[in-house]
Amino acid sequence: MGALFDLAARLGAPWLPWAALAVVGGGCAAALTALRRTGHLNHAAAVPVPAAV
Questions:
Q1: Residue 14 contacts residue 7 (beta carbons within 8 Å)
Q2: Distance CA 35, CA 5 (A)
Q3: Which of 2, 28, 41, 44 ranks highest by number of CB atoms within 10 Å?
């Protein structure tokens, strides 16, 4: 990511790193949406089950 900031400074395009971050964020959101719709993102697995005493 630092290299992208350097490239943006050389090109005079300060918006470039932020546009790249927005694209990556959109891709992550799309991937999470796809995982949720296909059932591969299971909320029950994230909830810890209490141990039997």
A1: no
A2: 31
A3: 41
Tokens of 22: 């927005």
* Identity of the residue numbered 41: L
pTM across the whole model: 0.67
Listing DSSP states for 1-53 in one string gives -HHHHHHHHHHT-TTHHHHHHHHHHHHHHHHHHHHHHHT-S-SGGGSPPPPP-
Alpha-carbon distance 5 to 9, whole Å? 6
Residue that the structure tokens 């796809």 belong to: 34
